[in-house]
Amino acid sequence: MHDEESSSAELMRLINGYQVSQTIHVAAALGIADLLADGPRAVDELAPLTATDESALHRLLRALAAIGILHEKDHRTFGLTELGQELRGPAGAWAAFIGRPYHWTAWGHLMHSVRTGENAFHAMHGVDVWEYRAAHPEEAAIFDAAMTGLSLRVNTAVAAAHDFGRYGVIVDVGGGRGALLASILEHHPGVRGVLFDQPAVVAGAHADGFEIVGGSFFESVPQGGDAYLLKSVLHDWEGEPAIRILRVCRRAADTGTTLLIIERQFSLPAAKLSDLNMLVGPGGRERTTDEYAALLAASGYELVGETPTVAGVTVFEGRAI
Ligand SMILES: C[S@@+](CC[C@H](N)C(=O)[O-])C[C@H]1O[C@@H](n2cnc3c(N)ncnc32)[C@H](O)[C@@H]1O
Q1: Which of 177, 148, 180, 147 is nearest to 164 (CA)?
Q2: DSSP string, 131-147
Q3: What is the pLDDT of residues 245-292, one digit of tens each?
Q4: Which ligand 1 atom is the nearest neighbour of the CA of 282?
Q5: Mean pLDDT taken over the chain
Q6: How far away, in angstroms, is 214 Cα from ligand 1 center?
Q7: Residue 155: CB within 6 Å of ligand 1?
Q8: Which residues form the signal peptide (predicted)?
Q9: Does the annotation count 206 as an active-site position?
Q10: Which residue among 18, 78, 250, 273 sits deepest, i.e. has the most Cβ atoms within 10 Å of its Cβ?
Q11: Which CATH architecture describes the domain 2-88?
């Protein structure tokens, strides 16, 4: 009986999961964690600072306390828990993105994707995520910061999992604002880095000791790299466009050049949900090792190794043949 009760409660917790996600998103978007950085504050002080309705904000903060993000110090005064402190770091940038209405709408139409196999985002907005963000720079800035946040969570593990020091030049293709590249170059000062991404994205990057090039990876990528790095790029695309990206990289690379693909470890539960995120959002998929090997084989590469990291991503190593 007890087990049945706890299973039912666990199921209800999972069913209502989106309420938790949206509650944390709104807290992150309002900057609640930063406002509580120096200690607990009262709702009547926080409401004007966040331009919110005091009573509704109180209800939000109570819910955040119920899920362990805040603690209620005394009546109507809230502080950060250890979990809540995390919102001040990289996870906060992801939380600020995940509930954005335009992205949320795509998840609201998961059923459309499951019934038709189509990308829900495109079906709802009439454009893909990249076109949408190009037309909405404020959303692009939130997304790019979220990507930087995700990268910061795995950079150290990635840097430890592969000897990047053996390359003269690393080209980070679709490298966002360059968080991973900056971390790699910090560990390997002798390596030269080239950050490549869409012009509007690299415009927001700080050139921390690397060269910056804007363009489209469907047309060309910088030549002369000893290693081409694609982190969380191929999972955004279905097979045909993913192969096109890889062929463009292959065209820029000499035979024998290394290709490094960093993507989620498919065996982990988080990868299965990320796979749905790819289905409804950018219109891509998470892949198994065999599936990456097949993409490489179709693009002039062979898969020569894979190194899982402690951060839940794997470094797949290919060689241009
Ligand atoms: C999921 S993000 C990953 C960013 C970064 N590699 C990371 O791991 O944080 C995918 C990246 O692909 C870039 N991208 C999308 N379409 C592109 C294109 N046609 N040419 C170049 N970059 C593109 C996006 O701007 C974005 O930075």
Answers
A1: 180
A2: HHHHH-HHHHHHHHHHH
A3: 999 999 999 999 999 999 999 999 999 999 999 999 999 999 999 999
A4: 1
A5: 95
A6: 11
A7: no
A8: none
A9: no
A10: 78
A11: Orthogonal Bundle (1.10)
